[in-house]
Amino acid sequence: MRALLFKLSAKRLLNNQSSLRFSCNTVSDAVIHPSAIVHPNAVLGQGISIGPFCTVGSSVKLANGCRLHPGSHVFGNTQLGERCVLMTGAIVGDEIPGRTVLGCNNVIGHHAVVGVKCQDMKYKSGDECFLDVGDNNEIREYASIHRSSKSSDTTVIGNNNLIMGSCHIAHDCKVGNNIILANNTLLAGHVVVEDYAHTAGAVVVHQFCHVGSFAFIGGGSVIAQDVPKYMMVAGERAQLHGLNLEGLRRHGFTVAEIRSLRTAYQKIFMPADANSSGFEARLAEVELHDKLAHIPAVCSMVQSIRDSFREKRRGLCKFRHWNSS
User: Fold this and answer.
1) Would you write out the chain's pLDDT as a tens digit for each of its 325 residues?
2) Over the Cα atoms of the chain, what is R_g?
3) Is 189 in the active site?
C-alpha cells in the first residue's frame, strides 16, 4: 500500500512539473527547473541555469551564463550581466519604478537583498530610483543594498569589491573599486567610499560622510565625519590614528612616498610646538614645502583634507593634538 501511494505521488509530481515546464520561458541551451517561475517576457541569454523555486520577472534581462540557485529571485526592471550568480534566497530588483543593473561576474550571497526600495522617509511612492553595480563584486550573505531615494541620483557600486555578510549600503551611496567592507559595516545614505578603502567589522558610517581611498577604519568604529585619504581611524567617535601604513605598503606605495606622507602628516597633525600656527597655516605650509609640494600622494592627501571642509561636507574626523614634549 505504501509503495502504491509513493508511485501515485511521484506520478502527480511529474505531471505538475510537466505543466510548469511548458508555462515557463525556455531557451534552447538554458537549464530551467520545472518549479521555477520565469515570465514569458523575460530575456534570457545563452547557458542560463535557473534552479528550483526561482522567480524571474517580466522585465528582467539575464545575460549569458547567469546562474540562479534554488529559491533566488529577480524582480522589476533588472539586468544581470554575464556569469552573475545568485545564491539561495538572494533577491535582486524590485517591482517599483526605476532600474537595477549588475555588471558581469557578480556573486550575490545567500539571502542578500540588492536593488530594493530605500528606507528614506523622503522617498515618494512612484518615483524612479536606481542602482548600478559594476563587475566582479562579491556581495555576501544577508547584505542589503538599496536603490536611490530620488530619480536624480543613483546608488553606485564599482568593481572588484568584497561586501561581507550583513553589510548595509543605503540609498544614494557611492562605493568605488577594490573596497573591502567587513561584516556588519553599515553605510547610511549618501556616503562616499573611495577606492581601496577597508573597514573592519561592525563599523557605522553617518550619512553624507566621505571615506578616502586607502583609508582603514578599525572595528566597532562610528564615523561621524570625513576620513581623509591614506589614514587610519578608530573609536566610538572615530579619531585619526595615523596613516594606514600597512595598507599603503600592500598596494605598492614606495618607501619614499610613505616617508613623505608621514612627514606631511606630522607637520599637519603633530606639530612640534604646542603653540604653533593654526591648522590652516599648517596645511598651507605643506602645500608650499619645497619637496612635499611636488609629491603627488602628498598633494592628494592635502586636497582630501581640504575637501572635508567644503560646503555640505561634515568636516574632518577628530584628531589628537600631539606634540614632541
Assistant:
1) 434 333 433 343 334 333 333 234 545 588 999 999 999 999 999 999 999 999 999 999 999 999 999 999 999 999 999 999 999 999 999 999 999 999 999 999 999 999 999 999 999 999 999 999 999 999 999 999 999 999 999 999 999 999 999 999 999 999 999 999 999 999 999 999 999 999 999 999 999 999 999 999 999 999 999 999 999 999 999 999 999 999 999 999 999 999 999 999 999 999 877 666 789 999 999 999 999 999 999 999 999 999 999 888 999 998 875 554 3
2) 25
3) yes
What angle is formed at CA 208 by the lines to CA 121 and CA 228, rounded to 5 degrees?
165
| Active site annotation includes 171 | yes
Cell of 261: 606622507
Which one from 135, 172, 195, 226 is the annotated catalytic residue?
172
Residue 32 contacts residue 50 (beta carbons within 8 Å):
yes
Q: Are 86 and 68 in contact (CB under 8 A)?
A: yes
Contacts of 60 (CB under 8 A, 6+ apart): 39, 42, 43, 74, 75, 76, 78, 79, 80, 93
Catalytic residue among 33, 168, 171, 190: 171
Among residues 189, 190, 198, 226, which one is catalytic? 189
State how far the Cα of 144 lies from the Cα of 313, in Å rounded to an integer. Answer: 25
29 is annotated as an active-site residue: no
